[in-house]
Amino acid sequence: MNMSIQYPLNSKSCHLTPEEIQQFGEKVDAIRREVMDSLGEKDAAYIYKIRNFVRYSEIASRGMLMFAGWIPPVWLAGTTLLGISKIVENMELGHNVMHGQFDWLNDPSLNGANYDWDTISTGDDWKYTHNYVHHTYTNIVGKDHDVGYGLLRVSESQKWEPRFLFNIPLAIQLMVFFEWYVGVQNLHLEDVLVYKTKTWKQVWQDAAKLRLKVRRQVLKDYIFFPLIAGPNALPVFAGNAVANIIRSLWASAVIFNGHFTEDAETFEPDNTENESRAEWYLCQIRGSSNFSGTEGLHILSGNLSHQIEHHLFPDMPANRYAEVAPKIKALCAEYGIHYNEASFIQQFASVWVRLAKCSLPEGSVQKVKSGRWKEAFILLKNRFLNEHNL
Q1: Fewer CB within 10 A of the end CB, N or C, for the chain?
Q2: What is the DSSP string of 36-85?
């Protein structure tokens, strides 16, 4: 068997022989078959219940903002409910439906090829950057654009640049405007702004469908609903804006927890064309992180709290991940594969530790830890001067 990915030397997972890798993959396949063969009315009822919640919570929240948004407690309640409605539509409905998780229902409104969600990103762009690129090349530096989104340094395998000194503030503003960053992700704006390998003319041409989607979303949330609210236009406008930010903050936190924790591995490509299914399974597990919580937390996260299971089975209805998670965890323990799981807060804290470490050049972190601040500063200064040819 030809190993296709170069694994980190400091991995918490055991090295497996080709035979063990194949056996591991067969057992993962068996877990998948058992669930997929049992899909039925319970799963259909679940996704219809989720869709109904999205519809009715949006109606209720917009009604609160439009008719009584000038009353502070009502505005706060309406904005919060609208934010939750947008989160569930984005995470548990749109994301999962566009993975084709419910194509088997033969309901055109829940077909992954047709669905387009209530966010800036077009369905086509998302299905390419996320469903294809991210899920095929998970955490492979240079292939998976989700490794830092072209903005952050989240792996020592990424070449350090002076701009990464601002990893933390850049990550914060990425979270606030996450909807917009995901929307423009497929344009690779860093190629224009930083690397100068792309022109703004190319960006304009590539953004044709995105411009239509942006216009639709802006007209809906910031013009249409405020206009029909009459004297309550300002509370409606503000409520819509804050609800979108609430969704961005939550969605980005879930995504960060899924792939940017300290124990989530990143990989360097070798010959991924020859990667076996079992090898791909191992990369998905080792490059992902789970967080524990209540049923409500799982729903709000689109069940991406089970990020490991989602990456193993992206087309499996997400409401089944809680069922298969103990089996995958037990299988990982059997083969010595690290199963990265902790509470939401623990994983989120781990993300910021990783971002802080990756903001510095190689070698600086060790010097800081040992109290050699002067040496760390000199190293940082030299790297900065070298990057600018000074």
Answers
A1: C
A2: HTT--HHHHHHHHHHHHHHHHHHHHHHHHHHHHTTSHHHHHHHHHHHHHH
> Alpha carbon of 321 to those of 16, 48, 84, 340: distances in Å?
25, 18, 22, 15
Q: How is residue 143 annotated by DSSP?
A: T
Indicate the Cα dihedral angle 180, 134, 328, 267, nearest 10°. Answer: -120
Closest CA to 269 of 287, 290, 255, 285: 287
pTM above 0.85, yes or no: yes
Q: What is the mean pLDDT of residues 68-90?
A: 98
Integer angstrom CA distances of residue 384 from 161, 184, 191, 357, 377: 8, 29, 20, 17, 10
Neighbours of 227 (CB within 10 A): 12
Determine the residue type at 224.
F
Contact 328, 340 (CB under 8 A): no
Average pLDDT over residues 322-330: 98
C-beta separation of 152 from 164 below 8 A: yes
Query: How does pLDDT run across 46-77, given as a tens digit for each residue?
Result: 999 999 999 999 999 999 999 999 999 999 99
User: Residue 268 gets which letter from DSSP?
Assistant: E
What residue segments make up the domains of the chain, in order of their start?
Answer: 5-153+165-343, 345-387
Cα 222 to Cα 56, 80, 105, 117, 258: the distances in Å are 20, 17, 35, 17, 31
**What's the chain's Rg over C-alpha atoms?**
22
Residue 120 burial class via C-beta count within 10 angstroms: exposed 0-12, middle 13-18, buried 19 and up: buried
Amino acid (1-letter code) at residue 326 = P
pLDDT, one tens digit per residue, over 228-275 is 999 999 999 999 999 999 999 999 999 999 999 999 999 987 767 788
What does the alpha-carbon distance between residue 372 and residue 131 come to, in Å, rounded to a whole number? 44
Going by DSSP bridges, is the β-strand pair 268-269/290-292 parallel, antiparallel, or unpaired?
A: unpaired
**Residue 309 corresponds to which tokens in the numbers above?**
């299971």
> Quick one: which H or E segment has residue 167?
helix 167-176
List 267's β-bridge partners, or say none: 140
Average pLDDT over residues 146-169: 94
Residues in the chain: 390
Measured in Å, how far apart are the chain's first and last C-alpha atoms?
47
